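Throughout our pipeline, every protein is held as a single compact record rather than as scattered files. Such a record has a labelled line for the sequence and another for the backbone structure tokens. This encoding replaces a full spatial description with a residue-level series of whole-number codes. For reference, a complete record is included directly beneath this paragraph.
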Amino acid sequence: MTVAVVTMGGTIATAITADGALPSETHAGALADLLAARGADARVVPFRNTSSRQVGAADMAALAAVILAEIADGASGIVVTHGTDTLEETAYGLELVLGTRPGVPVALTGAMRGPGQAGADGDANVLAAVAAASDERLAEYGPVVVFADEIHLARHVTKVSSTRVDAFGSPGWGPVGSVVEGSILLRHGVPATDHGIVGTADVGEEALSAGGPDVEIVHAYGGATGTLLAAAADRLDGVVVAGTGGGHTALGLTTAVKDVLKAGTPVVLTSRCPDGEVLRETYGGEGSELDLLGAGAIHGRGLHPTKARLRLAFALAAGVGPAVAFAGEM
């Protein structure tokens, strides 16, 4: 089995300088040396070397195209090295485009401590990801995040710490597996649903670049006025509301959300809580889930707001109706 290791940049690909950690030009070579020293049947595919805070939906679509090209060229598994700030978003973006369609394991990883720092974790994470990408059983799980010897589903994983090396978790779900002595131990069976959206398979980088769907997240908080949403509403193609609790908004934000809906712009209702579903029929009154869903907001189906934003953006770029994109089990 040949694993293609596609590089995207991030902490794992940095060098320490007087101006802080910056992208290093030696990352791909160092990866190749590591894999060769461990006897791994893997090849390094330099793609991008950028901070993950700059990685958007268009980059995810471009990465998906590279992955499919590598598979067509004989790769039996894929590892993507990536910055941790938005690693979970790229993992989910790949799931939207690829789903389980590639037929091979796809594992994303990175590092919290860069080369040269005490306790650097990049090498261990890469080797664990290569082990995961070499286990054909994981092809049925869609893209996964492999970090600190844990394996997480793209739809559930999130960065839970800004500094610890065990930076990722799946609140309410936990990892689906782990890496032990280079072997994969699976704790949960194959997910019941493929998270890909019908129609997104052919969405390319161009459709998601500048001029593509502009979908923003609006975070609710106590007494939120909705001023920013009202000011930007006519420039947006879609809105994701990260509501309080079970999907609630203060009166001012509620008015702004309803105005957006009246203008025909899709709004997806999610919760800012790290775990739990948006409610459907528990609370009434202005700004409740009954009120917002009744006004036409789309139920976010338990997705984290950042992932709901990606799902809406990819659906709009593919010409898939937002209600269709969020229908069914998540």
User: Anything to note?
Assistant: Residues 213-325 form a domain with the Rossmann fold fold (CATH 3.40.50.40).
